[in-house]
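Intended use. Records like the one below are meant for learning the mapping from a protein sequence to its folded structure. Do not use them to infer anything beyond what is encoded.
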Amino acid sequence: MHYIAHVTFLESVGAAVRTQRERRGWSRRELAATSGVSERFLAQLETGDGNISLRRFAEVAHSLGTTPAALLATEPAGDKPIALLGVRGAGKSTIGAALAKKLDYRFVELDQEIEAATGLSLGDVFTMHGEAYYRRVEREVLARLLAEPTPTVLATGGSIVNDPTTYALLRSRARTIFLRAKPEDHWNRVVAQGDQRPMAENPHAFEELRGLIAARSKLYARADRTIETSGRTARQVVAEIAGAL
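Structure written out for the chain above:
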């Protein structure tokens, strides 16, 4: 248990370092040149693998225009946000909105905030700028939302778990809940929303969905809690989450 907490703390500190570096528009090479810490070690630090000395850590912090204390302050004041995880069709929007209403929290969808920040749809973000740009904006928007004092229920994008740094930031500063469902339920919910594209454009879409869920299962399992949603109403799921909190 102590080992897990230690790893999570290092990951959250690394995420803070990376966020500050990217806000300045620096590459790791530029930060290495400024701080005197090797580029290779900075990569380890940002992924939670580096056990840096206090002196070196202070040099990194000062190069980023901040302090070691600020980078170590990974827990914001007040109630932690509640972050819902899962593949599309997990029910994050429906359950998130209902949970926020029940708890008197605000409800925020991360993808919508990314679109507002870029002035583009998610599809256009990927088409025009690529995934690396999307991941950077995703991390910056998430860091801003997590730092705000308003109690929040946050619906995340399904692929957020694929970015180790962003996922570490999320897990360190929010109560994470994985909404688990059978592949058939994911599929049926998307179709019920009126989206026929999965079937019309890709005859292998369902098998790809099944593979996607399987591939991400271990990452989603790192959430603080897993809630089953298959065969249950949104009200039942909301009641269980509220009770667990």
